[in-house]
Amino acid sequence: MESSDLRIFQQVARHKSVSRAALAMGYVQSNVTLRIQKLETELGISLFHRSHTGVTLTSNGVKLLAYADQILQLMDEAKEVFSSPDIPMSLRIGATQTVSASHLPAFFTAYHKAHPSVSLSIHTDHHEALMNKVVEGSLDGAFISDQYTHEQLTAAYAFAEEVGIIASREHHNLTDLMQYPLIVNQQSGCPYRTLLERWAASHQGIPTMFIEFDTLEAILKGISEGLGISLLPRCVIPPSSSFQYIELPETYRTLTTQFVIRNQKNPPLALRNFIDILNMKKTLAKC
């Protein structure tokens, strides 16, 4: 049994498709199929249920995936530990635009000071896409809302942050605020958007209009121009006289963000070190 066969098997299991796994790995589909068949012949078992929509693991496939994950993780860690100093380790982290703007700079700064040889990269996307990328293995971990869960993921760290209504200075009270549109993210599952809608509903003053933007910068610009109001962490308010921050009742005041990774007994060394930094530097999550 070769490690390369296990890695191909692992990718097919994660993507639930031979063709998608082949595309992700840069292999010819027929080669992936042959390697899976070779592995099944060698072990004398069937690893996948096959259908026109893709593949799913058999009970034996589930057992082998657990072993494959452990074996490949240990092999990757050994390569990282004994790799040449000229070939640095890497860490691929996912986050929403809001978390990227508010908390990641402090997290990355602390990590880089402790592990300067590790190459860091950040991928921004919405919560569900980030969760799926961690499951598929294209990200080592991601910061997502605690309302998202997956059987193949575990939360290695979490923090609560204060959120409130952000408006321009020209809006003076809640009565005024409820007359303006809600400026929200385009993703309907955005936790900030969901909480803002709940708060608006509690005041029986749901605005007749939602204005959707796809970036945090656009949302803040719209607020500063008096276009409407939004709900965001206190951390992201620019140091400008154009904004005012309005505290919310306790029920609506906090949202929890979790850092999720794949279920694994031995995460890669670079990832373990990042989690250690998060847990040692909990104060970094404060605004």
Automatic annotation (TrEMBL):
UniProt keyword list: DNA-binding, Transcription, Transcription regulation
Cross-referenced InterPro entries: LysR_HTH_N, LysR_subst-bd, WH-like_DNA-bd_sf, WH_DNA-bd_sf
A molecular function GO annotation: DNA-binding transcription factor activity
Domain HTH lysR-type, residue spans: 1-58
Family: Belongs to the LysR transcriptional regulatory family.
Protein name as it appears in the record: HTH lysR-type domain-containing protein
Organism: Paenibacillus selenitireducens
